[in-house]
Amino acid sequence: MAKSILVTGGTKGIGRAIIQKFAKEGFDVFTCSRHQDDLLALKTSLESDFPNQKIAVKVADLSKKEDVQAFANWVKNQSVPDVLVNNTGVFLPGSIHSEPEGNFETIMHTNLFSAYYLTRAFTEEMISRKSGHIFSIGSIAGLTAYANGGSYAISKWAMLGFTKCLREELKDFNIKVTSVLPGATYTDSWKGADIPEDRFMKIEDIAETVWATYSLSPYSVVEEIVIRPQLGDL
Questions:
Q1: How far apart are the first and last CA of the chain?
Q2: Which residues form a coiled coil (predicted)?
Q3: Helical residues (DSSP H) of 171-229, grouped into ranges
């Protein structure tokens, strides 16, 4: 029976690269996005490249609790994933004291609450079978404060704390938990910036790192991955 991976926000960037890597390794895929067209394009591409795997996609806005729960139930009716990657995120720049009203709520619901609710939806089954690997895609913004990070940085510090707590809660049930804390990675959010592309990390490097972490023996876990551009942070 094929193993499966659930990646939120899987149509672009790091999420898509992780899906591509795990699909190549024989995993069935579950993912979501707010945009139907992007999901269908991803599904068509993956089914062409990996015709023997299940590729299941669903429209969901994970900033909304009801959408998170509906998506989780939809997945659970088909499978309990072996790997869960909480990747959905939004970046809205601004300073805490002056960012637009509502930034905090939008970012926290999207970046943190979605991971909290989705993880809770699957942990009972993972505990019962005593297996699973949960990845949280955070950011070096969750390690180092910087100007104009605002609510985004707050959400990533909180995500790291959430993941640390989860690691302690689940380790006795043979469930691995890993924080992934990338620096500047070349995704759509950076396109158009006046910075050479070779100054960024590649999304494929993040995906390969996640795969290598997952592939360790049952006796070891990588708790935190900090990965930065070779020339340092931007």
A1: 43
A2: none
A3: 203-214
Distance CA 195, CA 30 (A): 34
Amino acid identity, position 125: E
Q: What is the structure's pLDDT at 9? A: 95
Distance (Å, whole) CA 29 – CA 39: 12
CB 118 within 8 A of CB 110: no
| CATH (residue range 4-227) | 3.40.50.720
Q: Where are the beta strands (DSSP E) in 150-222?
A: 176-182
Average pLDDT over residues 129-133: 97
CA distance 203 to 14: 5
- pTM for the model stands at 0.95
Summarised one tens digit per residue, pLDDT across range 47-106 is 999 999 999 999 999 999 999 999 999 999 999 999 999 999 998 889 999 999 999 999
Please give the Cα distance from 164 to 179 (Å, whole number).
8
DSSP 37: H
